[in-house]
Automatic annotation (TrEMBL):
<dbReference type="InterPro" id="IPR052354">
    <property type="entry name" value="Cell_Wall_Dynamics_Protein"/>
</dbReference>
<dbReference type="InterPro" id="IPR003646">
    <property type="entry name" value="SH3-like_bac-type"/>
</dbReference>
<dbReference type="GO" id="GO:0008745">
    <property type="term" value="F:N-acetylmuramoyl-L-alanine amidase activity"/>
</dbReference>
<feature type="domain" description="SH3b">
    <location>
        <begin position="337"/>
        <end position="400"/>
    </location>
</feature>
<keyword id="KW-0961">Cell wall biogenesis/degradation</keyword>
<keyword id="KW-0378">Hydrolase</keyword>
<protein>
    <submittedName>
        <fullName>N-acetylmuramoyl-L-alanine amidase</fullName>
        <ecNumber>3.5.1.28</ecNumber>
    </submittedName>
</protein>
<dbReference type="InterPro" id="IPR017293">
    <property type="entry name" value="N-acetylmuramoyl-L-ala_amidase"/>
</dbReference>
<dbReference type="InterPro" id="IPR002508">
    <property type="entry name" value="MurNAc-LAA_cat"/>
</dbReference>
<feature type="domain" description="SH3b">
    <location>
        <begin position="185"/>
        <end position="246"/>
    </location>
</feature>
<feature type="domain" description="SH3b">
    <location>
        <begin position="29"/>
        <end position="92"/>
    </location>
</feature>
<feature type="domain" description="SH3b">
    <location>
        <begin position="262"/>
        <end position="325"/>
    </location>
</feature>
<feature type="domain" description="SH3b">
    <location>
        <begin position="105"/>
        <end position="167"/>
    </location>
</feature>
<dbReference type="Pfam" id="PF08239">
    <property type="entry name" value="SH3_3"/>
</dbReference>
<dbReference type="Pfam" id="PF01520">
    <property type="entry name" value="Amidase_3"/>
</dbReference>
Length: 592
């Protein structure tokens, strides 16, 4: 009997031992967090009374290994682990923790005659260009109704309904590295601000990198409009219209020379890791601190390469950088010559001078293309032929070449740098209201929040989500985040429920007097765009309002208990309208 008990205990121990590694592996796949306050303590155990292991700083990113209540265990340098308070960090959204910025999620073909491209995910964002039917684009990011795309002409957001995704072919086996020539006799110097390097000599060739103006690349050979160059221990193709070819000063070009452009990057995070490769998963090569400025050597979508120590380079995430132009750059008038200017709207005025009150010389059609001669006060001077020129407002055109894309300030000018907390109601074990068709409130509030988040980020706002996954967050933690960040606005997003299945409409709540203005602006915008019953703005004694010392509003965006309204709420059209209305309402509020 005793022997049987011992054997049983051994079996249990063996089973338990085999379970823990799998559990740890699962925890390691939970994602990453980012520190969202200046400095926070990392503790031995998930308790404020536990000893402090170390400190981590704003902007730093760590792998999640375990979670307990409102605490998260992270992996530190050297493999050590520690616990941080969940209300002081932000989970990195899955798309930000992937290589989607470097490798396209998919490729798609434009299915409309003309597809307008915008600088953010929504119709309220400025049109920066267009693509014709049949044009192929790489999808970099998805936002339910909008996708961020990249082509040889433009990078921006487009309506998903006018793009048809292509089935990806199986990747071909990678060719062995081409042997370098004994000597390189020419150098290609980049003359555009950002030039794509492609795998093949064609506009639809896969983009494998991007370089800045002034970068010198060893010239290998020419093929029509394309030049083959050495790039990162391999080869690639660039369009010869955006380079100057000159004799090499040396036959030894074993590495790509550094950029001569002088484009600068200033660190905006308190402390930022520099990585060996352009990825959040790249090995840490070093660390830089806030307000340090470096010259950008190379760019790859959301990453820039810098020399952070003498003779030592690495990659920094561009969302923690502020780019500026070096004073030694060539004058804009010289740089933009030869850029192609494409008219975005029918009837665009071409004027005699760079002034909205100047004489109109002619009206251009949408899609017309001109060559730029110069730029003056955000107006492009265009060559009309026979020695004549005219001016067009820079925000009425798209630019292909080295000229800057001019943007007319819209709602984003009121939202830029504003701290906005977006609080998707419920989450985790708290489902909220369950609709008649089984839809959970916690899932729909997150959909709305993510759509609004992307719009605000595109506008330059400092948008922060209280949760971006199906996670339970206490009400105290949600309010604490509002105070921690000194939020300019706090939006708690909900969907309503009632015992009466015919209850309908949107309601916006506030409690304190300092919250009323925000609530009314948001509700005014919602009632004008969302076609549901208007239930008005009211005072409500909710925790996230009562305990919140910042301007805050709680929004009930429709009734899930109403079968017809539930069907409307879960549609992509309604979700886009609700997010757009909240975005506009915030812009109105900050414009007061």
């Amino acid at each position: 009997m005793e022997k049987s008990i011992i054997l049983c205990l051994i079996s249990i121990l063996l089973i338990t031992a085999s379970f823990f590694p799998a559990e740890l592996k699962a925890n390691a796949e939970k994602g990453q967090i980012q520190v969202i306050t200046d400095v926070i303590n990392v503790r031995e155990a998930p308790d404020l009374a536990s000893p402090i292991v170390t400190e981590v700083s704003y902007g730093e990113i760590y792998q999640i290994t375990a979670e307990r209540s409102n605490w998260i265990q992270i992996t530190l340098e050297g493999g050590k682990k520690g616990w941080v308070a969940g209300w002081l960090i932000s989970r990195i959204r899955q798309k930000e923790n992937s290589n989607s910025e470097l490798t396209p999620l998919a490729h798609a073909v434009v299915s409309a005659d003309t597809l307008r491209i915008r600088n953010g995910p929504g119709k309220q964002f400025q049109i920066i260009g267009s693509l014709t039917g049949g044009k192929e684009a790489a999808i970099l990011e998805k936002n339910e109704n909008w996708v961020k795309i990249n082509t040889d002409e433009i990078t921006g957001w487009a309506a998903a309904e006018f793009l048809t995704e292509k089935k990806e072919e199986k990747p071909k086996s990678k060719k062995s590295k081409e042997k370098k020539q004994d000597s390189v006799h020419k150098i290609a110097e980049v003359t555009a601000d950002g030039l794509n390097i492609r795998e093949t000599p064609a506009m639809d060739g896969r983009v494998i990198g991007k370089v800045t103006r002034g970068t010198s690349l060893p010239f290998l050979k020419e093929n029509g409009d394309w030049i083959k160059i050495e790039y990162q221990e391999s080869t690639g193709w660039i369009n010869k219209d955006f380079v100057n070819i000159s004799p090499s000063s040396s036959t030894d070009k074993s590495r790509v020379p550094e950029s001569k452009s002088g484009t600068l990057a200033t660190i905006t995070a308190q402390s930022l890791y520099i990585r060996e490769t352009p990825s959040l998963n790249g090995k840490v090569a070093g660390r830089v601190t806030k307000n340090k400025t470096f010259t950008i050597l190379e760019e790859r979508n959301s990453w820039v390469k810098i020399e952070f120590l003498e003779g030592k380079t690495g990659w920094a995430a561009s969302w923690f950088l502020e780019k500026t132009s070096n004073k030694e750059q060539k004058p804009a008038q010289k740089d933009i010559k030869g850029s192609k200017i494409k008219i975005l709207y029918n009837g665009t005025n071409l004027r005699e001078k760079a002034d909205a009150n100047s004489t109109i010389m002619r009206r251009a059609k949408e899609g017309e293309i001109f060559t730029a001669a110069s730029i003056q006060n955000n107006w492009y001077q265009l060559q009309l032929g026979k020695g004549k020129t005219a001016f067009v407002a820079g925000w009425m055109v798209s630019v292909n070449g080295s000229g800057p894309q001019i943007q007319k300030p819209g709602a984003e000018k009121h939202l830029k740098n504003k701290v906005i907390i977006i609080d998707p109601g419920h989450g985790g074990r708290d489902n909220g209201t369950t609709g008649t068709q089984g839809n959970l409130e916690k899932n729909i509030t997150l959909r709305t929040a993510l759509l609004l988040y992307d719009k605000l980020k595109a506008a330059g706002a400092n948008a922060i989500l209280t949760r971006n996954t199906d996670t339970y967050i206490s009400l105290e933690s949600r309010v604490r985040l509002s105070h921690q960040y000194n939020a300019d606005a706090f939006l708690s997003i909900h969907y309503d429920g009632s015992a009466e299945n015919n209850a309908s409409g949107i309601t916006t709540y506030y409690l304190h007097g300092y919250q009323e203005s925000l609530a009314k602006e948001l509700h005014h915008s919602l009632s004008g765009l969302v076609k549901l019953t208007d239930r008005g703005t009211r005072q409500g004694d909710y925790h996230v309002l009562r305990e919140n010392k910042r301007s805050a509003a709680l929004l009930e965006l429709g009734y899930l208990s109403n079968p017809a309204e539930e069907q409307t709420i879960v549609s992509g059209k309604y979700q886009e309208e609700a997010a757009a209305a909240l975005y506009n309402g915030l812009a109105y509020y900050f414009n007061e």
